[in-house]
Amino acid sequence: MARKDLVGRLLLSVAIISVGAAPLTADLNETHIYNDAWPPHARFHTAVLLLVSVGLTLVGLWLLWRKTSELRTPFFLAALIPVLCWGSFFPALLIPGTAVEDVPGDLPRVSGLPLNLFVGLVFVVLSVIGWWLAVSSSDRLSRPHPRYPWRRQ
């Protein structure tokens, strides 16, 4: 495994793990899933999202680290998981009545962004960089398959 490939996979792994770890730390508490002011159906959807996030993390890590001769598609799908999960924070703000925090100004700011949006942006960028490093370093992506020259390895 080339050094760029390993660094890319590690960066992607961090971004993928964040998909499962962040909701478990941010939403599994009294302000979210255990909030008595939330209706049961809202808590149900939060619980579903937590379980989906953990499942996507496991799928993403499997795609990234499994042994296979075809890397382009698994790397793309693995990178897509954190890009979609974290990237969805931004268009969600376009839905009327949504907000990134319960009380405006309650979250710490980084470069003017609420912490959760800043973290989301960091993991999207980290995913893209990790994907690019992993894909661009692997010569197996550009060599023809030894048995089927029309296919790539």
Entry keywords:
two-stranded antiparallel ribbon; mainly alpha; elongated; 153 residues; single chain
Describe the structure.
Helices cover 61% and strands 3% of the residues. It has one domain (3-141). It has a two-stranded antiparallel sheet. It has 153 residues and is mainly alpha-helical. The chain has helices at 3-26, 40-65, 72-87, 89-92, 115-137, and strands at residues 109-110, 113-114. The two termini are 15 Å apart. Helix 1 (3-26) packs antiparallel against helix 5 (115-137), helix 2 (40-65) runs antiparallel to helix 3 and helix 3 (72-87) runs antiparallel to helix 5. The longest helix has 26 residues, at 40-65. The radius of gyration is 19 Å and the shape is elongated.
Strand content: under 5%
List unreliable stretches of 5+ residues. none
Helix content: 55-70%
- Spatially, the strands of the biggest sheet line up as 1-2
Question: Alpha-carbon distance between the termini?
Answer: 15 Å
Summarize the structure.
The chain has 153 residues and is mainly alpha-helical. It has helices at residues 3-26, 40-65, 72-87, 89-92, 115-137; strands spanning 109-110, 113-114.
Task: Chart the SSEs and their pairings.
Elements lengths: L2 H24 L13 H26 L6 H16 L1 H4 L16 E2 L2 E2 H23 L16
Helix pairs in contact: 1-2, 1-3, 1-5, 2-3, 3-5
